[in-house]
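To assess whether the prediction recovers the assembly geometry, we first specified each molecular entity separately, as shown.
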Amino acid sequence: MLGSQEYILSKIASNDGHGENSAFFDGWKAYDADPYHPTKNPNGVIQMGLAENQLSFDLVEEWVRNNPMASICTPEGASQFKDIAIFQDYHGLPEFRNAVARFMEKVRGDRVRFDPDRIVMSGGATGAQETLTFCLADPGEALLVPTPYYPANDRDLTWRTGVELVPVICDSSNGFKMTRDGLEAAYKAALDSNTTVKGLLLNNPSNPLGTVLDREALSMALSFTNDKNIHLICDEIYSATVFDEPGFVSIAEILAESPDANPDLVHIVYSLSKDLGFPGFRVGILYSYNDAVVCCARKMSSFGLVSTQTQRMLASMLADEEFVGKFLAESAARLGARRAAMCQGLAQMGVGSLKGSAGLYCWMDLRRLLKAATFEAEMELWRVIVNDVRINVSPGASFHCAEPGWFRVCFANMDEETMRVALSRISKLVVQSKSGEARKQCRRRSKLEISLSFRRLEEIMMSPHSPMTSPLVRTMT
Amino acid sequence: MEFKSRNQGQLLSKIATNDGHGENSPYFDGWKAYDSDPYHPTENPHGVIQMGLAENQLCFDLIQEWIKNNPKASICTAEGAADFKDIAIYQDYHGLPQFRNAVARFMEKVRGNRVRFDPDRIVMSGGATGAQETLAFCLVDRGEALLVPTPYYPGNDRDLTWRTGVKLVPVVCESSDAFQITRAALEAAYKQAQDSNIRVKGLLLNNPSNPLGTVIDRQTLQESLDFTADKNIHLICDEIYSATVSGQPGFTSIAEVVQENPHCNLDLVHIVYSLSKDLGFPGFRVGVVYSYNDAVVSCARKMSSFGLVSTQTQRLIAGMLSDEEFVDGFLAESRRRLGKRRADMCEGLGQVGIWNLEGNAGLFCWMDLRRLLKAATYEAELELWRLIVNEVKLNVSPGAAFHCSEPGWFRVCFANMDDETMEVAMERIRKFVARKQRRRMELEVSLSFRRRRDELVMMSPHSPMASPLVRART
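The predicted structure of the complete assembly is given in tokenized form:
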């Protein structure tokens, strides 16, 4: 007897919780099918949808060549091969934990200390987010997450855990800053739906905004979560991509300044994928001030430990304080220069982006290029950018942004020449839009202006991509 | 601003506050004893010898020589450093094609090239630990169950049930059958689950078996395939010890049986694998899910994001396993050394009248110490075990840790030490048994009036017999 496929698989395997069936993967497919190459495929799609840090590999390669002892495969290091290959203790190599703790301290200007015994490994930040969720929330309970947010939060935090996400709406009227009112509204909406909120997840610096949270916002988040007796999880994966003022303030610093706060509620997610540019090495870190969480997460780390070969190499690299100091400074400078070049290039064509001092991307404002202030129009513009302009960028709806027209464009995963090509393509789009559509727009605008103002709210609320359709959000502030 | 602090118990999830991780069992005392007093030939000759860890440490000389001769396999050598960046940024969850190809080829060689594996069905995971959990998430809903023959690997409880909410239903195997899996036992377990309104979604086999050290024969594999087909449930085969088989009977993979059953439903068959045992690389976390079901491959691959293999390690393994000459030499020599070590151990134990279940696979023996028990109970097994750990100073694993249905069996690992340490361990066992024999002769008269009966076996809290799902012994 043969049943249907759905019968024999689990609900988790048969649902869309992995998030990959969204239309936004078309951008990836377009790139995969036709990737840009300066000489072999100069008309191909330029990948600007991947937040990667590729600007400082020369420094890393130099270090690797000069430090053969860090490897278990070099003549200098091979005698350690066996000991490293058989080491499977989920505490991890002590030198690895020490080096990671030290690195995290340096990134924060030595303003805080990290205890190596609280460093827990995970399968990338992906694994760290899921592990924390398993530790802190039961199926059906919820975490608050400010929008716009990293799309894979949906998969990492909810797919296999059964936990829900409740969006905390942030909008451009105040630079997408999180407010106490916004937090309270989201919390209340959850309560009204009989959903128990167990925590608040912050991403600082923010993906996709490219901004840091200031001291006031972090203190506010800490006091909010303490008041509600819920957890505060801070994903600080972009901590070393801050290249300008305002500088990075870690939740670790705020906690150190708040002796009355409950440390059992505070947890940090980290990874080396963005700051160092090593996504392939799967180095995820969970740091908790709660002993029981450290203990539980460590047991769960068996599902996603860091390869000891990689632990060993990174232990050496990150323990080299001179290298780390040089790398952090140089990487930040190059990111800053690259972002400045990008933002200036965009500004010259009249395209603004949210002012920010961090991250590997800009949060680009293309609202005035939309045919209408709707997510359908955003999707249409995005298809034009991917298919005609031949650049893969990420539309705001994929980040659950409350307003259409914002796009995240990454700048650190290519060389300067490619970025110039990308900017020139964008400028053509903008110019075409201006001249071709300007006259049309003027005529349409006066006709539509009246009807738009009635339709705008409903359209935002009715888009399948909008967090507005979540039953947990009833009113826009 | 005021901050309130409250009771920890309300703060964490149910999963975080239950015992599903399995580490609160008394068996961890053995590890603690070892950790606090580890044996060293010169620095601590009276310390505890670790014989509770199934590790393969016999062939690192071969590995090390290969490493020395193949610097391009590393991204840190002068020869390989130019590739550092490309490897460090590669995060595609399909994995490096050369990695998948090399692993598929390796698995074929281990099976004597009797089957082919499709590299596109190779999915990475965080060790076999991650592979088992991922498959459970893909195939089974919360509250549903998997059948697992006893005795079984203790980590199954954590891997398959802790975060998934899935249940395990034991399929009881007994020494009278040399612990072989019978159709009757499978049917009994399935029926028990049904009677308790628990839906069974699959059967998990471990072949070769931990802790038995035996291979599952072709007939039993065929029966398992037939059974799962009849019930329309999944068949998961953990073949993690596939290359540790020396001599006869040889290893038969479910992949071969599937090949011989062209009408079987492939959508129900899945293999779990890892390089932790066959190669001896537990630290590298190289887990593999291989499924004949396209939807499972697709789903497991998406889930692999939670536990991908470091690309640095993928690159090294790709280099190593695609060296066919090295692989052939390694497999042959590793099997030979394991076979010899096992034979030495069994001979040494046999000399003092201790027998093992006959087997030719794995990194351990399944030792029969029933006649050393004061009584045929789990309490007596625990008592004997504490004696072995604390007085004989050997960390072995008691059968109850593997949910064995009969007390008195112990798993003793032999591949994680050198010959000298092995000899020290054997000597300690010989002395211990000799002491026990003397004492037994002295007490035999008084004991014969006090001997307890087998019913007590069923009353131990550690016995799978105590599970509500098993009502009658066959």
